[in-house]
Design a protein that fits this description.
The protein is mainly α. The protein has 6 helices and 2 strands; from the N terminus they run ααββαααα.
């Protein structure tokens, strides 16, 4: 039988159980107890963090996952506004995410945009409208305009579901 090494002192020892990682020296037992306490605290902290999340926290998490999906979906395409290959990729929203909650997670509303157009030109909306019309067509753009002016309040369950959906979509992109 191969003798394992103690996780703390690195000496070889004979384990009592198959998953025994520490020898029975005092300092190693103390190290084991500390490891168990740390692990228990991390689990408790993770549980509390999830339980104490507000709708705003879930909204931020969903937005982060959604934006990642849009950047991956449009990888290789130029910026929707300036038609240049982006140096830093952003997820640009034609209708802003803050003012138009109903289309915040609408795939027709969001496209890859360079940081210059998105951040420094406040979305470069005139050129964005030209680009979005080319990509989704005039009819879908008119439908998007109609959907954009409907107010939507997102529930925590809806946001959790969106996170799950878009994580799955991200993994499906080759």
């Amino acid at each position: 039988m191969i003798m394992p090494r103690c996780k703390n002192c690195k000496d070889k020892f004979e384990p009592i159980r198959f998953n025994h990682k520490f020898c029975l020296k005092d300092e190693c037992v103390k190290a084991f107890v500390e490891e168990v306490k740390t692990s228990a605290w991390k689990n408790t902290k993770k549980k509390w963090t999830t339980e104490l999340k507000t709708t705003t926290d879930w909204l931020k998490d969903a937005q982060k996952v959604f934006n990642t999906y849009i950047r991956k979906r449009d990888e290789g395409k130029p910026c929707i506004s300036c038609n240049q290959p982006p140096k830093k990729k952003n997820c640009g929203h034609f209708f802003s995410q803050g003012g138009h909650s109903n289309v915040r997670f609408d795939e027709d509303n969001c496209h890859l945009q360079c940081e210059h157009c998105n951040t420094f030109l406040s979305g470069n909306l005139l050129n964005y409208q030209i680009g979005i019309q080319k990509r989704i067509g005039a009819e879908k753009l008119i439908e998007l305009h109609a959907r954009a002016h409907i107010t939507k309040r997102w529930s925590v369950d809806e946001l959790k579901e969106l996170i799950k959906i878009y994580k799955k979509k991200i993994n499906q992109i080759p």
